[in-house]
Amino acid sequence: MKSKAIHPAFLILGTIIVQMGLGTIYTWSLFNQPLVNKFDWELSSVAITFSITSFALAFATLFAGRLQEKWGIRKLIALSGFILGLGLILTSQVSSLLMLYLLAGIVVGFADGTAYITSLSNLIKWFPNRKGLISGVSVSAYGLGSLIFKYINTAFIDHVGISQTFFYWGIIVMVMVVGGSFLLREAIIEETTMNTENPQNTQDKRDYTVKEMLVTKEAYLLFIMFFTACMSGLYLISIVKDIGVQLADLNVAVAANAVAMIAIFNTVGRLILGSLSDKVSRLKVIASTFLITAIAVTMLSFVHLNYGIFFACVAAIAFCFGGNITIFPAIVGDFFGLKNHSKNYGIVYQGFGLGALAGSFIAAFLGGFKPTFIIIGILCILSFIIAILIKLPSRLKAKIN
Fold it and tell me: Which of 97, 87, 86, 77 is nearest to 36 (CA)?
């Protein structure tokens, strides 16, 4: 691995700062009701903004790797941070849903996704022997940004109003992401060959191009697993307070505590399971998370919920979701190498965008929380089986003639 000399601590610090700034978009639920109150829009119409953001975020990952090759990691992250901040600043001037969708949805989501996957992949390339831990540090910073800014943006909304909050939020995020980009350096790795005997030995692995990856069945199996992990976590995040009120008979104030609980256990899961996956088989860790999630959503569907059961299920799903988001970038590196990691993971990462939409659509179609959780449970069992059986792709099968 070759690049300009820099202390590893600065690379990690820069990535943490960038990821914390990017993670602030997960405070969007704070903005729904204030926007409804100011513009008299329908709550459902405002809330769909975050689905658009999530889809644009995932879609951006398809192009981020190529943009990094063209501009380099520092320029790309700095430009993404500038556009992300500008999108939020301009959102402070919106007066129509269309402009809200365009700026806070498409522009913010695309810039966020571009910086997210490239900064994450770049850091993993710098530390190939600790992919799980490093991935955990990076994506935990993303989660920490949402937790910290939950309080910062709440304070802004209370003191300066919803529109000015977007303005100040945009400035802060722009400074964080652009500032963090100056500490980053491009990781350059030499192409290696795949060793199917040891999936976590980073010294003897073949680097697959996107074209080569897409002719392996393993790429599609990983996509199914990642889609399931994202749908289970993102659907819970979007409706957890409502579940507490409607299914567990909690009052609104108590049920709202589940929002903070998700952020905490999500972050803890990223750190613990990411580090654990460097010591034991990543696929065994992933299989365990699917099994635990299946049990939790089954309990939410069929067990009479009280305070303890509700919060235990929420914590378990959030913990597993955080772990899955952390470990999957490392698994993609294990299976397909690190040279083209940004582009390869960008393909698998489309499961995030589709997962963000699928839960809401399934709930609307089936008519509620419980049937949606049953579908998620079935998918988790399927993904558990895949995680147990999946093997590294055969080099011969992946070869393009």
Answer: 97
3-state DSSP of the chain: CECCCCCHHHHHHHHHHHHHHHHHHHHCHHHHHHHHHHHCCCHHHHHHHHHHHHHHHHHHHHHHHHHHHHHCHHHHHHHHHHHHHHHHHHHCCCCCHHHHHHHHHHHHHHHHHHHHHHHHHHHHHHCHHHHHHHHHHHHHHHHHHHHHHHHHHHHHHHHHCHHHHHHHHHHHHHHHHHHHHCCCCCCECCCCECCCCCCCCCCCCECCCHHHHCCCHHHHHHHHHHHHHHHHHHHHHHHHHHHHHHCCCCCHHHHHHHHHHHHHHHHHHHHHHHHHCCCCCHHHHHHHHHHHHHHHHHHHHHCCCCHHHHHHHHHHHHHHHHHHHHHHHHHHHHHHCCCCHHHHHHHHCHHHHHHHHHHHHHHHHHCCHHHHHHHHHHHHHHHHHHHHHCCCCCHHHHCCC
Cα within 13 Å of Cα(348), Cβ side: 33
Q: Cα Rg for the chain, rounded, in angstroms? A: 20
Rounded distance between C-alpha atoms, residue 387 and residue 221, angstroms:
9
Is pLDDT at 220 greater than 50 in this prediction? Answer: yes
pLDDT band at 189 (very low <50, low <70, confident <90, very high): low
pTM: 0.79
Give me the count of residues in the chain. 401
Contacts of 280 (CB under 8 A, 6+ apart): none
Spell out a b/e string for 249-281, using b for 16 or more CB atoms within 10 Å of the CB, else e: ebeeebbeebbeebbebbbbbbbbbbbbbbeee
